[in-house]
Amino acid sequence: MRGHEFVVRQMASLAVAGCFAGQAASLAAAPEPAPATQAADTARDEVAPGVDAGLIAEVLRDRIPLSAARVSVRWGRETAVLHGEGFGFFGHDTQFSISAEQVRDVLRRFDEADFLAMPDRVGGGAPPVGPIRQGGPIRRQPPEVLMGEVGLTIDGRTKSVVQIGGGEQSQPLAKLAGDVLALAREAAENGLRVPEFAEGLAMLADGRLRPEALSVIVQRNYQGTAAPEKSGFLLRLEGTAVTARTNSPRTGLGPEHRLVLSDDEAKQLATLIAEADFAALPVNLHASAHTDFIVRVFRFNKGVQARPNFAKIAPDTHGEKQRAFDRLFAEFEKLNERVLKDGAPVE
C-alpha cells in the first residue's frame, strides 16, 4: 500500500476509532453488535505463541513488575483500559486512578478464568457447506458481529480473545469483561474528564493527562512534486511508542522502526503541539511536499493537510499559524530521523 493511501485510511479511521468506543448503559444488557472486522480468522485452544501460560503468576509473585501489565476491554459500546502503573481510561474521554491491589485482583480473575488458554475467537456461525451457488440464487452468509474483545498484555506480549455473535458464547469471557468494566466505570466517576480537543492538549502538556491518551500520525510524501526522487516518511506516535518508516514515491513504505520514549519526552511532544495551538490551525496550509498531520486526544481529533499546490494558499497566507505549523513539523521530522536511526526494526 502506498504511503498516501495508508494515511488517508488512517485519517478516516481516526474519526470514528481509537482506543475507546462509545458507552452503553450497562453490561448486564445484551451488548450492541459491532462489525467483526478485527476478529481472528481461526480459533486456537493452546496459548498464543509468545505468551507464557505462567505470565500472570509471575506478575502476582512480583517476578515481573506490575507496571508491565495492561488489560483492555471492548464490550458492546463500553471500553476500558487498565494500566498496571496505576491508571486507566474509560470510554471516550475519562482517565482514572486505580490501586495496585485493584490491578492484582483483576489479574487474579484472569488467572482463575484461565484466560491465557482461551481460544483467540469464540462464537460465530459455521461457514457455509458446499457450492456457493446450486442452480438458484446466491446464498449469502450473514455478516459476523463482534460482541466484545478482551486483551491482556504482560511484558510486551499480548493475548486477545474476541467473542462473535452466534454459536457458543463464553460466559467466563463475558464475566471478565463485566468485572473490568464495572471497576473502570466506578473509578471513572472520580476521574479526569477531557471536555474537548484543545483542553485535552493542555492537560497532556501540564501532565494531568497521561501520554497514552495521545496519538499522532505525520506523513510527508514527495510524489508529484518538483523533487520526486526525495524520500518522505510516515511516523506514528501512540502514547510513548513511536514507529517510523521511509515513504518513497517509487517504492512506497520502507521497513518499520520502533522507539519507546520516556514519559517526559512524550509530554514535551504534547507541549509542542499545544504551543503550536494545533486546535486553532487552519485545516489546509502550505508545505513543500504532500504533508498530513493528525492529532488525537481520546475521541477528539484534528487533521491538517499541507500541500505545495493548494489554490490561494501561499507560504505567507496564514502568517504566524503557518510558521507555528512549520516549527511543529520540523520537530516531528527530527523525531522521525531519530527513530529511523536509533529505533529497533519491527519484525
Count of DSSP-assigned helices: 7
Q: β content, as a range?
A: 25-35%
Percent helix range: 25-40%
Q: Would you list the SSEs in sequence order as H and E?
A: HEHEEEEHEEEHEHEEEEEHEEEHE
DSSP, total strands: 18
Please describe the biggest sheet, giving its number of strands, its sense, and whether it closes into a barrel: 9 strands, mixed
- How confident overall, as mean pLDDT? 84
Poorly predicted parts: 1-48
Q: How far from one another are the termini?
A: 18 Å
What does the radius of gyration come to?
22 Å
Which structural class do the helices and strands define? alpha+beta
Quaternary status of these chains? single chain
Overview of the molecule:
With 347 residues, the protein is α+β, with helices and mostly antiparallel strands. The protein is built from 7 helices and 18 strands. The chain has helices at 3-14, 55-60, 100-112, 171-188, 197-205, 263-275, 319-342; strands at residues 34-35, 69-75, 78-83, 87-90, 94-97, 121-123, 145-154, 157-164, 192-193, 214-221, 232-238, 241-248, 252-253, 257-260, 284-286, 290-297, 300-307, 344-345. Strands 1, 2, 3, 4, 5, 6, 7, 8 and 9 form a 9-stranded mixed sheet that branches. Strands 10, 11, 12, 13, 14, 15, 16, 17 and 18 form a 9-stranded mixed sheet that branches. Helix 3 (100-112) runs antiparallel to helix 4 and helix 6 (263-275) packs antiparallel against helix 7. The longest helix has 24 residues, at 319-342. Residues 1-48 have low confidence and may be disordered.
